[in-house]
Specification:
single chain, mainly alpha, Four Helix Bundle (Hemerythrin (Met), subunit A), 8 helices, rod-shaped, BAR_dom
Length: about 280
């Protein structure tokens, strides 16, 4: 009985925590999307789809939370409140048994006053009857109570699984549309294989990264976390032909960055590009 109540109480706590964490995750993802708007053109189609998907996710989470509260948490909390009376009766039965044991002990050890013995015997008989009546009530009804409670828990957990399936279906639909927008050059991207997704990403990264390294403003010695094929398959060809000038000085600055790591190299490149734009 108490283990069933403990299980139900823990289940309510876990579902509530899961709901809160799920909402926090979607809120954080929404903040991430808002931050991307500061650096990415708002009319970029994939980003527009990303924002729409986030809106669908937020709506799915709210709908799911409302359904979970109405069809799972409220029934569980109502069911939990029903344990108070049976648990009180169990505690009361224990007290009745202690009363009977105390009176029986007093009766067994009192031999002097006949009137006192009679009072103790009557009180002991009454305490025994009270205990037996309450004990019989619990013996008859507690198994049925536990059976009905277990039935309600089983049904409600089934509803919980159904609601989760509906929620994850909605999430999958939203993310599927988003993944289609980000498929490189409209190539097929099976969503069932994470290895396929990573392979497609590596291929696209290799292609774009190769074009990036081939630019004259990017030093050939620049070290970036790109696939080996990018770094080994592309060489920067200097097309500069003219008298030394500001551009040569800047190329010289870029060519001295071979010892820096990825983060500092990228930072240096962007700083230089920004300084160029400022001078222009």
């Amino acid at each position: 009985m108490m283990s069933l109540e403990t299980f139900l109480r823990q289940l309510i706590r876990n579902i509530t925590t899961w709901q809160e964490d799920l909402q926090k995750a979607v809120d954080s993802q929404e903040v991430l999307g808002e931050g991307m708007l500061l650096y990415v053109p708002s009319d970029l189609r994939p980003l527009t789809c990303y924002q729409r998907s986030l809106g669908e996710l937020q709506g799915a989470v709210k709908t799911h939370g409302t359904s979970i509260t109405a069809h799972v948490l409220v029934p569980f909390q109502s069911l939990l409140s029903l344990f108070q009376d049976p648990l009180h009766l169990i505690s009361k039965r224990r007290d009745k048994l202690l009363d009977f044991d105390h009176l029986q002990y007093a009766l067994d050890h009192h031999t002097e006053d006949p009137e006192k013995i009679k009072q103790l015997r009557d009180a002991c008989t009454m305490a025994k009857r009270n205990y037996e009546a309450l004990n019989q009530q619990l013996i008859e009804e507690l198994p049925r109570f536990n059976q009905l409670v277990q039935s309600i828990i089983d049904h409600t957990v089934t509803v919980l699984f159904q609601l989760q399936f509906r929620f994850h279906t909605a999430v999958h639909a939203a993310l599927h549309q988003l993944a289609e927008q980000y498929t490189p050059r409209n190539r097929s991207l099976p969503l069932s294989s994470s290895e396929t997704i990573q392979a497609a990403h590596s291929e696209a990264l290799s292609e774009v990264g190769g074009q990036l390294i081939s630019l004259s403003i990017v030093p050939a010695s620049l070290t970036m976390s790109l696939p080996t094929a990018i770094r080994s398959g592309h060489r920067r060809v200097s097309e500069s032909s003219g008298p030394p000038g500001e551009g040569d000085r800047e190329d010289s600055i870029l060519s001295t960055s071979s010892e820096v790591d990825m983060d500092s190299s990228i930072s240096e490149v962007w700083s230089l590009l920004l300084s160029r734009d400022t001078r222009r």
